[in-house]
Each structure stands twice: as structure tokens, then as C-alpha cells.
Write a structure and sequence with these properties.
The protein is built from 5 helices and 3 strands; from the N terminus they run ααααβαββ. By secondary structure, it is an alpha+beta fold.
């Protein structure tokens, strides 16, 4: 989601790094819900929503069973190559389905509530996440974070409260 796309719907841009083709950041899960409400009210025959964590993971892997990337720097902006800022969307290599910035630049909100042991007993096909909770799931990675202990995994995971608006999150 670019800052231009966000501003066209919301009328304002809370991003720290202002530039229309950069990803919007500094928005909370609650802010994104309001964006989606307004976008859906435009009645363009589509229904927009955040992906579940499982949908996000499937899209990030582009259907591959592998959860590692060979060259993180080729596909993601992270603290080792970002220059401590976001970058315009789509400047790194896309995944196999043509999706950009899935593993870096800004974290991405998912629809799911966080459940510590949810996946131990969840449905195998299309898990929807816990029905309620106190924390929301974010996936991907950010310009301000390293590749993590997993190195080049298909996407890091973190959890935040729905009202958190932290730089590096969309």
C-alpha cells in the first residue's frame, strides 16, 4: 500500500518517510480497519480485507513449500541495506507470484488475533486464527529490523496491540 493510495482514501498520511510511492507506515491495525471500511464503502464491486496469517504466509512463499529465500537483500529492505528508512514500493525483486516487499520494507498487519498455541490445534486447511485476543499478528519484516535468528525465512512474525502505530508498520 503506497502513501498515495492511503491518502486517496483517508485524506491524510501519518508516515514518517513522506513520499507518495513509499509504503504507508505508522498506522495501527485499527487505522487499517477504518481504511478498509472506507475503501469498501466506495462500492467498486470488490470487498477488501486484511489477509489471515495463513493467507499471508502462502502469498509470501508464492505457493512454495520452502520457507527460506536464497538472497534476502534481493527481495527485502531490512536494517542491513535500508539506510534506516523505507524505500519506494516494488524496487526489490518480486516473489514467484509478482508480489513485492513481502519480506521487508514495512511490517504487514494480518487479520488474525494472536494465539500462542493456535496452530497446534488449528485446521490444516485455511486456518482463520483465534476468534478473539489482545494482540494482532504482523508479518514480513521492516527496514528497521534485521533478518532475525531464522536468517532468510519467508517472513518474520510479531504481535502488537490493535492500537499500536509504530514506524515500520502498515
Amino acid at each position: 500500500m503506497t502513501q498515495a493510495q492511503w491518502k486517496a482514501v483517508m485524506g491524510a498520511n501519518a508516515s514518517q518517510f513522506k513520499e507518495e510511492d513509499r509504503p504507508v507506515e505508522n498506522v495501527s491495525w485499527s487505522d487499517v480497519q477504518e481504511f478498509l471500511r472506507r475503501l469498501n464503502a466506495m462500492n467498486d464491486l470488490y470487498r477488501y480485507r486484511l489477509p489471515t496469517e495463513a493467507e499471508w504466509e502462502y502469498a509470501a512463499r508464492a505457493g512454495s513449500p520452502l520457507d527460506m529465500v536464497a538472497d534476502l537483500g534481493a527481495v527485502a529492505w531490512y536494517d542491513g541495506n535500508s539506510g534506516s528508512q523505507t524505500h519506494p514500493v516494488g524496487r526489490k525483486r518480486a516473489n514467484g507470484w509478482g508480489l513485492y516487499d513481502m519480506l521487508g520494507n514495512v511490517w504487514e498487519w494480518c487479520a488474525d488475533w494472536y494465539g500462542k498455541d493456535y496452530y497446534a490445534s488449528s485446521p490444516i486447511d485455511d486456518p482463520q486464527g483465534p476468534a478473539s485476543g489482545n494482540l494482532q499478528v504482523v508479518r514480513g519484516g521492516s527496514w528497521s529490523n534485521g533478518p532475525g535468528s531464522s536468517g532468510r525465512r519467508s517472513g518474520s512474525r510479531a504481535v502488537l496491540t490493535a492500537g499500536s502505530a509504530v514506524p515500520g508498520f502498515v
